[in-house]
Amino acid sequence: MSEESPQVLIIVDAQEGFVTPHSQHVITPLENLQYEFDHVVFTKFYNPEPSPFRKILGYDQMAPKSPETELALQPREEAVIISRPLYSCVTEPLLVRLKTWGVREVFIAGIATEACVLKSVLDLFELNIRPWVLEDLCASDKGAEFHDPAIKVMGKLIGPQHIIQSAGPEVTIGRP
């Protein structure tokens, strides 16, 4: 990232309904990490009636305004929160924010690696917005058997150099 470009962290679906023993380890680190960035965006999935999740998958969790859809961490005061009924968090409100901030690269982490994180990362990539996936701060609510292959697929599709650790030597205050 260039020094002039603001640092943006997108935290995908760190919501009560997705926190399980497999994913709870990312919540506190994400809550702490948000303060290291110029901007932070939290995304929240909700599952309205009707939806393909309900109709095709038979998935009836995460109903709008249910306790499951609440964030499992405390966003900082000026955080942007965007709700959406889709896998991808790459919606018009997010794109408008990124354009307003002059951002062409983002850091992304959250739950579920194999679903909403993966789809969002690919959508950002296809819009020529460079995603930096914070592997250690992504999780699947279903476990490593879903998380690990998703990380591998993202590395193949966006380049393995874009899969990084949040506290590794390649990141300095959120910058690779």
What would you note in describing this structure?
- The N and C termini lie close together (7 Å).
- This protein is α/β, with parallel strands linked by helices.
- Helix 4 links the parallel strand 4 and strand 5.
- The C terminus is likely disordered.
- It has 5 helices and 6 strands; from the N terminus they run E-H-E-H-E-H-E-H-E-H-E.
- Strands 3-2-1-4-5-6 form a 6-stranded parallel beta sheet.
- Helix 4 runs parallel beside helix 5.
Describe the secondary-structure layout.
Elements: E1 8-12, H1 27-33, E2 39-45, H2 52-55, E3 80-84, H3 92-101, E4 105-111, H4 113-126, E5 130-139, H5 144-158, E6 163-164
Parallel strand pairs: 1-2, 1-4, 2-3, 4-5, 5-6
Helix pairs in contact: 4-5
Write a short abstract of this structure:
The chain has 176 residues and is an alpha/beta fold.
The 3D shape can be described as globular
Mean pLDDT: 94
Tell me about the largest β-sheet.
6 strands, parallel
With strands numbered from the N-terminus, the spatial order across the biggest sheet is 3-2-1-4-5-6
User: How many strands?
Assistant: 6
Please provide the ordered H/E string of secondary-structure elements: EHEHEHEHEHE
Helix segment tally: 5
- Overall structural class, as computed from helix and strand content, comes to alpha/beta
Query: How much of the polypeptide forms β-strand, as a percent range?
Result: 15-25%
Distance between the termini: 7 Å
Rg, alpha carbons: 15 Å
Provide the low-confidence segments as ranges. 172-176
Instruction: Please give the share of residues in helix.
Output: 25-40%
